[in-house]
Amino acid sequence: MIDPFPLGSSLTEAEQLHEQLRKTGPALPATDPDGHRVWVITRYDDVAGLLVNPRIVNVRPDGPEGSPGLKLPPALARNLLNMMPDDHRRVRALATPAFARRRIESVRGIVQHHVDELLDQLDVSSDGTADLMAGLTSPLPACVIAEVLGIDGDAAARFRAAAADVMSIDPSDRASNAVRVPAMTTIVMVLLEVIADKRANPADDVISEWIAARDVDDRLTEEELTSLAFLVFLAGFENSVYQIANAIGVLSERDRAEVLVDIDDDARWRNLVQQLILDAAPGSFAIRRFNLDELVVGSQVIPPGSSLYLSLRAATADPARGNRPDLAFGRGPHYCLGADLAVMQLDITVRSVFRRYPRMQLVTPLDSLEPRRSWRTHGPQRLPVNLG
């Protein structure tokens, strides 16, 4: 039996594991880290089909309380990852305009400002080395998300500090709850304060738009409003931190002259960014799902109400995919709302780093760096570089 959920895999190890899973079979019975029996689905046609199947849902049918695809307190559980299809369509329709491509393009200057500011403030040692994880890739997404949501001043500082605490913990260590719980509580309290302030003083930001949907049009419940704001942080934070760190590490080990040519050519750079989305992808699985009906995948019969883990990594790398779209950000009704923002942060940050430090080198090869102790997210805990 192959363990699909090992802790602390490097990017290369994750790629090798999911290649092995796909070659083993299209549907593999397994035990998840919580001890539950699950099914891992590995091949492109099956994964792509299940992602758009309306009979595959995010909440266990007739399951006990506390069995959603993402474990959160009740006040935060009414989010897009934990909703049945009808509620999901309603809330997503309200959330989508805030992340439309035209609006996200207006955020480009915000991202560039924070990247430049963080690079200006890098803690560089006397021998010219710096940790880009601590100084750049970890704080950046929290800065950007706070500004997009409309969190500023003291609230933004508390939000960023709590986000840094979330990133500092070892997710495999139960004792880390001593840090995680207060940090998550702070994030929720900041969001509640900002929502109250925006009710009194609406502005041109995402939270103000959602408050109007809640208060004026009565299309959101109060819990849905809070949970939606929290989800934007949760979904867009950790993945972007490691996507950017992985991309810097991956490019650092490629032919530097060619990378610098790509950076200076807009068309070549756009193509490279699209490839980096796959080569540096930190996550392997879609959020856990449940089947309402009996499924047949390959020769396996999967009973209704089973836990399904869809391997986006294995499916995207499946030779049978051909020229069809990759699944890095999912597909269909659960396609990542923040995909354009994530790609923009990757684009601007990586390009800025190599333009500013064209001779930068990793102090240690990427696959030798200590990885995050998580089965959900793959990336280094530190990214030490010599800036050249």
UniProtKB/TrEMBL annotation:
<dbReference type="GO" id="GO:0004497">
    <property type="term" value="F:monooxygenase activity"/>
</dbReference>
<keyword id="KW-0560">Oxidoreductase</keyword>
<protein>
    <submittedName>
        <fullName>Cytochrome P450 CYP258</fullName>
    </submittedName>
</protein>
<dbReference type="GO" id="GO:0005506">
    <property type="term" value="F:iron ion binding"/>
</dbReference>
<dbReference type="InterPro" id="IPR002397">
    <property type="entry name" value="Cyt_P450_B"/>
</dbReference>
<dbReference type="InterPro" id="IPR036396">
    <property type="entry name" value="Cyt_P450_sf"/>
</dbReference>
<keyword id="KW-0408">Iron</keyword>
<comment type="similarity">
    <text>Belongs to the cytochrome P450 family.</text>
</comment>
<keyword id="KW-0503">Monooxygenase</keyword>
<keyword id="KW-0349">Heme</keyword>
<dbReference type="GO" id="GO:0016705">
    <property type="term" value="F:oxidoreductase activity, acting on paired donors, with incorporation or reduction of molecular oxygen"/>
</dbReference>
<dbReference type="GO" id="GO:0020037">
    <property type="term" value="F:heme binding"/>
</dbReference>
<dbReference type="InterPro" id="IPR017972">
    <property type="entry name" value="Cyt_P450_CS"/>
</dbReference>
<keyword id="KW-0479">Metal-binding</keyword>
